[in-house]
Specification:
Layout: E1 3-8, H1 15-24, E2 30-36, H2 47-58, E3 67-73, H3 77-83, E4 88-92, H4 96-112, E5 117-121, H5 132-140, H6 151-163
Parallel strand pairs: 1-2, 1-4, 2-3, 4-5
This protein binds 4'-phosphopantetheine (PNS).
4'-phosphopantetheine binds near residues 8, 9 and 109.
């Protein structure tokens, strides 16, 4: 049973994240999509909203026999990974610019916990410029999100704007 953690902010989940999860399903029997609880950041969606959106959108993806679970965590990622008896951490790398930061995190995590491996995966090229940060910026400036995020995410973002 190979279990991996796919950690992140997922604020919001993008099609790039879903692409990585689908690819990860070819390597692992179970992937825990773990949302970081970060009290210092003012998120667009609450942890509960992100959990619910992820659970809904994961129903649509190609997973084969891979189990997918959504959770949230606080504190050190490697401590969470150990508590979950995971073997690996999955991170998506879109461009060289991601690599430097990701390498730093991977090596720090290895120093903290040498038994956990970090696996870098590349999303499809069409998602190589998609990030949660840019999705929020484009949305807030009235741009089109078609193809960048699952339809549920766009609908929930519009709903939030209406209620604000
Ligand atoms: O989606 P993000 O915001 O790029 O995800 C970043 C994340 C959650 C992977 C990273 O911030 C993280 O692992 N935070 C937990 C704190 C931690 O373990 N820090 C030390 C290792 S570098």
């Amino acid at each position: 049973m190979r279990r991996a953690i796919y950690p992140g902010s997922f604020d919001p989940v993008t099609n790039g994240h879903l692409d990585i999860i689908e690819r990860g399903c070819k390597l692992f029997d179970e992937i825990i999509i773990a949302i970081l609880v970060n009290p210092e950041k003012q998120p667009f969606f609450s942890i509960e909203e992100r959990r619910e959106i992820l659970e809904q959108t994961l129903k649509e993806i190609q997973r084969g026999s891979c189990q997918l679970r959504v959770d949230d965590f606080e504190g050190l990622l490697v401590q969470y990974a150990i508590a979950q008896q995971a073997h690996a951490i999955v991170r998506g790398i879109r461009a060289i610019s991601d690599y430097e930061y990701e390498l730093q995190m991977a090596l720090m995590n290895r120093r903290l916990e040498p038994t956990i491996e970090t696996v870098f995966m590349m999303p499809a090229e069409k998602y190589s410029y998609v990030s949660s940060r840019l999705v929020k910026e484009v949305f807030q400036l009235g741009g089109e999100l078609d193809g960048l995020v699952p339809p549920l995410v766009e609908a929930r973002m519009k709903e939030k704007l209406r209620r604000a």
